[in-house]
Amino acid sequence: MPRALVRRRINRAPPTSYRILIILTVFALFGSISCSAALAGGAGTAYAFVTKDLPNPADLSSRPLAQVTQLYDRTGQHLLYEFYEERRIAIPLSDVAPVLIQATLAIEDAGFYQHRGFDPRGLMRAFIGNFQRGEIVGGGSTITQQLVKRSFLSDETTYTRKLKELVLAVQVETIYQKDQVLEMYLNQVYYGNQAYGIEAASLSYFGKRAKDLTLAEAAVLAGLVQLPSRYDPVTNPKAALGRQEQVLEAMVRNNMVSEAEAEEAKRQAAGFTYRLQETRIVHPHFAFFVKDQLQQVVNPDVLRNGLKVITTLDVDTQNMAQDIVQRRVRELRFQRVNNGSMVAIRPQTGEILAMVGSVDYYNKAIDGQVNVSTAQRQPGSSFKPFAYAAAIASKRWTAASGVPDQPISWRDESSRTGVYRPQNYDEKFHGTPTLRSALANSYNIPALLVQEAIGTPKLIETARSMGVNTELPMVRSLTLGAGVVRLLDMTSAYGVFANNGLRVAPNPFLKITDSQGRVVYELADPKGQQVIEAPVAYVISDILSDNRARYPMFGTVLDLSGGRPGAVKTGTTNDYKDSLTIGYTPSLVVGAWIGNTDNSAMLRVAGSLGAGYIWKEFMDTFHRGQPLERFQMPPGAVRTSVCGYQEVTIQGVSSCAAIPWPQSAARLTIPTVPGVPAAEPTRAPRPTPVLPPS
């Protein structure tokens, strides 16, 4: 027990004698400064005056302490980040090294285990010295007095405040055991450099737990309490060594250590290289995202008192994602690319396994501190699946339905020419492809006609229900990416397709406990919300994972290794400011982005050749060695003959209706495509991958 560390007999004075001593001290102090209350009513009145409106000392142990909130990876082994109002980690007295307790008692209050809250002789010596100076300077405070001052009182230098401190100290010691008082003190006292409490101080100055401190280290920390800035071992190591010597001499005087042990501790301290332990930020974009989420969902008082947060981040997955993004950005530098981002989520639980906010958080030249995964960017054609999902969900069309891919124009007052004439990426027209072919090959004109057929409000409603939370404009080109979105939202929304239509919000938390170890939050199996029917989600997954269907436009660039099914969609903005690829397997959804943080244009970096390479490499690496998963057809979906095609459709829906041509659009001259049937898409040449120069 800590009390046994002090080699003195403990003689407790009776509480009544201390009350009398307090009254006499109050009377003497108030009389010496001509206090009207003391003169008018004597010592009793003075005592009542001092104790009026004092806080309840019983509240001392229940007062919440501002503590550190620590964020860990999913294993709980890797500290990602910690933040605090006061950097404090409260620990029990049993977790403090005995030599630190001895050092603290020796220099701050050698009679701690003998007195009952204050030291009469020390107090009178301090009073006489202060009285001779004509002002109250300090001195004579026991550990208990320091504790109540910090907890209940201000720093004003008046006799009234000092007397309140004295009275409260005695009251505290009638309620709490000595070890309890010492534990509260060691957890509250300030050690400088934003370190509150002995655990934070030990970690800050020596990078170790308080229970592992040596005598030399303990003497340095114990010496800080009196004047942390003056004895700061980082900025003033000479003063710190001098103060450590005073602590060790006090320990020798109180028979806590031998002279030989003290000399050895001095010798060790002379060789210390002090380097203040800075707050670590590992994977800062994710860490700050989690901090922001905590501040939104956790009561501020609970957060102030300190939390231990086990996040969903998988460090190996995160490191792999960061490496792949950085490498691809380096390869594309010659095409005016300076940044990339990626998010990986488990669609069934919403767990965020990886979040790459930029290639380098600390690179100011690329605005690296901007978390692109949560920033608003244009999605390009990655928005198209929401329109096709709404069309399939309406049960008016199937994946076998035809959709015109022909020259088209709309009046557009915002356009320079007053007319909007959309083009496909390959600047060709493909007759009347099926919805499957049109979506798989990302033809623009069919997507616009699908949006026109379902209505823009329905498209917005579908995207929003799936998790796209940004403000979406009521424009005809929304399905081509005319709005702005967040990569995190889009990745999570694609997770709805992977999860049979169930929406599970992205979640960075596995478990949160408070400073007392009580569970505040723990991830259970989320039920999710059915936002689209499971057969609809399966139809979209079946289209986006159809390698043969997308071959005319993309070749095999996006095909996963080993025949693993992967649903994927790219997005490229008209001016090449954003290159996106979002896709998924049944158990993982990943969104990748390539571009420039300042929104400047790249040099023709398409979604498949920029972010697509990131997505494919990450997916192949992540799934290597894992069992092959296929998208399972849910009840209500069937594969049958529809419009002459073997197609997946919703049970009971076999419509051959084509997407209608909008009355508000003009039909331009349709170029002939020799040798291509009207119902089949033109087989565009396989694109040549863009590679860096050798």
Layout of strands and helices, then pairs:
Layout: H1 15-32, H2 36-51, E1 69-72, E2 79-83, E3 87-88, H3 98-108, H4 120-133, H5 143-152, H6 159-175, H7 178-188, E4 195-196, H8 198-206, H9 215-224, H10 237-253, H11 259-270, H12 284-297, H13 300-304, E5 307-311, H14 315-331, E6 339-345, E7 352-356, E8 376-377, H15 384-393, E9 408-411, E10 419-420, H16 435-440, H17 444-454, H18 456-466, E11 485-486, H19 487-498, E12 502-503, E13 509-514, E14 519-522, E15 529-530, H20 534-544, H21 547-554, E16 567-572, E17 578-585, E18 588-595, H22 611-623, E19 637-642, E20 645-650, E21 666-667
Parallel strand pairs: 1-5, 3-4
Antiparallel strand pairs: 1-2, 5-13, 6-7, 6-18, 8-11, 9-10, 9-21, 12-15, 13-14, 16-17, 17-18, 19-20
Helix pairs in contact: 1-2, 1-6, 3-9, 3-10, 5-6, 5-7, 9-10, 9-11, 10-11, 14-22, 15-17, 15-18, 15-20
Short structural description:
With 694 residues, this protein is an alpha+beta fold.
